[in-house]
Design a protein that fits this description.
The chain is built from 3 helices and 9 strands. By secondary structure, it is α/β, with parallel strands linked by helices. Bound molecules: inosinic acid.
């Protein structure tokens, strides 16, 4: 198996502090609402697990899986639903929880999908906002960290399904992007 050179860009401690702050903000904003955290698999499972435990209001958690990337690091641009949410979405406050916004195509597709499903409200929360390759004018409502470039792994971000288990976030020094 090929070994990649990595550089830590966001520490475990920095992630913990930022996720706690996001949880406080979301708890304030959704007080009195009908919040459903909609984690996008597989990249957001670690983020969603930590985020939901820093949220202090009543909420539900569900999962959606879309496919947009192959084994490489560049977007194919085509998105399809692989696993639909299990919960009823209609009329509820959906907060889509993503690992990273890159081109924006995945979140744009998900926004449209939840509007079509007649969600009461749809907002976006992403751990990392990577603006360099954005193809659609999409702004997340809650952003953990903004980074301009690099291919990131760790904290459930993967390269060809590897490195999701690393507790901090790293850039791959030798992956084409
Ligand atoms: P977008 O549709 O281009 O915004 O890409 C969103 C998806 O691409 C994310 O949910 C990730 O799964 C994947 N992705 C984009 N950039 C990275 C990265 O730097 N590391 C790991 N996955 C990435």
């Amino acid at each position: 198996m090929q070994h990649h050179t990595m550089l830590e860009v966001i520490s475990r401690r920095a992630i913990e502090e930022r996720v706690a702050a996001l949880g406080r903000q979301i708890s304030q904003d959704y007080t009195g609402g009908d919040l459903v955290l909609m984690a996008v698999l597989g990249g957001a499972f670690v983020f969603a697990a930590d985020l939901c435990r820093s949220i202090t209001i009543d909420c539900c958690i569900d999962f959606v899986r879309v496919a947009s990337y192959g084994a490489g690091t560049a977007s194919t641009g085509s998105i399809r639903l692989v696993q639909a949410p299990a919960l009823e979405v209609s009329g509820r406050d959906i907060l889509v929880v993503e690992d990273i916004v890159d081109t924006g195509l995945t979140l744009q597709w998900l926004l449209q999908y939840f509007h079509q499903q007649k969600a009461g409200s749809v907002r976006l929360c992403t751990l990392v906002d990577k603006k360099e390759r954005r193809q659609v004018p999409l702004e997340a409502d809650y952003v953990g960290f903004t980074l301009n470039h690099g291919f990131l792994v760790g904290y459930s971000l993967d390269f060809a399904e590897r490195y999701r288990n690393l507790p901090a976030i790293y850039t791959l020094q030798d992956a084409a992007s």
